[in-house]
C-alpha cells in the first residue's frame, strides 16, 4: 500500500519476474531504474513512449554502490549469490529490499494483489506459499468484479457531499457512510443502473431506516 508515485525505485533484474516487477512499479507511478545486462523483450516497448523515457535501464551487472539514492529496491538477478551482497548494501544504506523468492534477505514481502480501481485487496502468506496467495487472489477477483470500480467512483463523488451535510459531526458522518455502503446501491451499479444507485445513496445519506433493493 505504499505511495510510490515519483519515488526512485531500483530493480536489480535478470530473473524471470523482472518484467512483471518493472511493469507493476510503472503502473503505480514509481521512478524506476533497472539494472540488467539480459534481454527483456517485454520491456523494450515500454522503455520509451511518445518520445518520453518511462524508466532508466542500465544494461550491466549490479555493482556495489548502485543502491545509493534509493529508498526501495527489488532484487531478482539470475545470479542468486548476489542477494547477500545486495542485502548488505541495502542494510548499510537504509534501503528497503525485496529479494524475490528469498525471504531471508527481504525487508518486506510483495503480496498477491487484486485491483478494481480504488479497491485494492492484498493477500500474503508471509513468504511461505506465494502460490496459495495467488489462488486466493483469483477467488477474490471472481467475487469483487468490475462493478466495484464503478461503485467506488460513485462513492468518491459523495465525499464532499457527506462532509458538507455533516460538517462538524464526525460520528454523524461515519454513520452516514455505513448507511450508504449498506444500502442496495452496489447491486444497482452491478445492474448498470448508476443513476438509481446515486439516488439510493442520497437517500441513505439523510435517513436512518433500511431500504429494500428496488425492483
From TrEMBL:
Q: Does the keyword Cell membrane apply?
A: no
Q: What is its EC number?
A: 1.3.1.76
Record's catalysed reaction(s):
precorrin-2 + NAD(+) = sirohydrochlorin + NADH + 2 H(+)
- The answer on whether this UniProt entry bears the keyword ATP-binding reads no
- What keywords tag this UniProt record? NAD, Oxidoreductase, Porphyrin biosynthesis
Could you tell me which pathway this protein works in?
Porphyrin-containing compound metabolism; siroheme biosynthesis; sirohydrochlorin from precorrin-2: step 1/1
Report the residue ranges that make up the Siroheme synthase central domain in this protein: 116-142
- Which positions fall inside the Sirohaem synthase dimerisation domain? 152-205
Output this protein's name: precorrin-2 dehydrogenase
Organism equals Thermus tengchongensis
